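WARN no homologs supplied; continuing
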Amino acid sequence: MSLIETRVGFGFGIGFGLGLAVPLVVLAGACGGASATSQPREAIVLGGPPPFEVVSRTQWPTEGWPVVEPEEVGMDPAAVDRLAAYVFARSGDDVDRKGQRTNALVIVKDGKLVFERYARGYGPDSSLLTWSVSKSIAGTLVGRAVMEGKLDVNDPVARHYPPVDREGVREIRIVDLLQMSSGLDWNETYETSPVFSSVMAMLYTRGRADMAAFVASHELAHPPGTHWSYSSGDTNLMMGALRGAVGEEAWPDYPWTALFDELGMRSAVWERDGAGTIVGSSYLYASARDLAKWAFLYLSDGVWDGKRLLPEGWVAFTLTMAPAYYDTELTPGTLDDNPGAQVYLNHGDPKRGVDKPWPEAPDDTFAAQGHWGKVIFVIPSLDMIAVRLGDDRQYTCNRPDASDGCEPDEDKAYSKHHFLELLMATVPR
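OK structure emitted
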C-alpha cells in the first residue's frame, strides 16, 4: 500500500527576539474565558506594524506573477546561475535517495518572479507536498478567523473544541497552540524513533481517524504556555478548534473561501483526516508559485490588493519569538529552532549563547519549513522570497561535531546554509 493510501481522507477542494526594532505584542489584563480554577494569564492584544518596512504595492500576483529578468531588479544573473547550479546538482539517484533532490525553485524579488526551475517531472502548475510548511499556512487560517471575529487568540481551546475541557488541559489557549507551547505530552520523532513517536501514531496509525481528538487525549507534561516543544499535534489540535469556531457549514470550503481564493492559490489541495479535519501539520499540496503568494501576503502586512485579510498586528505577532522558548532547555536538535507563531525566525538567543540559525541571511529573515528540504524563505529587507521544494533524505552537517548520519560535503547533499550564502550573493549589497 502506498504512503498516500495509508492516510484516511484526501483533499476536499482544489481551486515552525533579537534584532527586531520594536516590541511585537502588547500584554494587557487577564485572559478571558479561563476556568475558575486557572491562574490568570496575561492576554495578547494584537496591534502595531510588522518589524520591517512595508513596501507600497501597485501589482498583485493574484492572477499570476509578473516575470522579469534578474538584472531588472538589481540581481546578478551570474550569481543566480551559480545558485541554480548548486540547487539542481545531483550526486545521488532515485534509488539511494541521496544527493540534491530539488523539485522546484522559485525566486521573487520586488514583487516579480525573477527565477524558476523544476526537475523530476514537475512544473509551474504542479501541486507538491509541503510537509510542515503546511503549519505556517494553517496558522494563517487562524489569522483569517480572527479577522472575521470567529475566534480570539486568547480563547481557551475548549471553547471551540470541547474534548479538551478537562482539568489542566482546559487551560490551553489558541495562542499556546500557535506558539507550540500547549504543554501536552508529545514526542515529535520520525524515522529515528517511530515506535515511540506521537506524530507517527497521529498521522499513520491509531490517531489518523481523528487527529485532533488523538492530540486532545494526551495529558499535560508542562503547564500551558511555559514550555516550547515542536509539535505537529499542537497544529492539528488547533485545526480542530478552528473547525469548531468556523462551524460545520462553512468548514469544508474554509481554507479556499477564506484564503486561497483571495490570493489566487488555485493549486492548493489539503488532505483531511478520517473525521474531515484538514491535516494542518503536514498535508497541504501547492505549487511553488502559489506558496510564494503566502509569503507576499506577510510582506504586505496581511493586506492583499487593498483588502486586509489578516488583523492589524497579526504579522507582528507571528514574527515574535514564542515566549516559552526562552525558558525551554534546548537540545542539539532544537538549537536552530527560533519559533514564532507557526513560523521560524532568525534571532538566536545571545543570553544562552545560541547563535542565529541563518547567519548568512539578514536578521529579519523568517521562514516556513518542512521535512525533506521544503522551505519558503522571506527576507523583508531585500523584498525577496525564495521557495525551494525538495525531496532530500540526507542533509549536509550543520555542525562540525554532528553525528547524525549527515553528509559533511555540501556539494553532495543539500545545505541550507550554502543555499542562503548563494542566495545572498545574487543581491549585491
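Residues 57 and 306 are 9 Å apart (CA to CA).
OK
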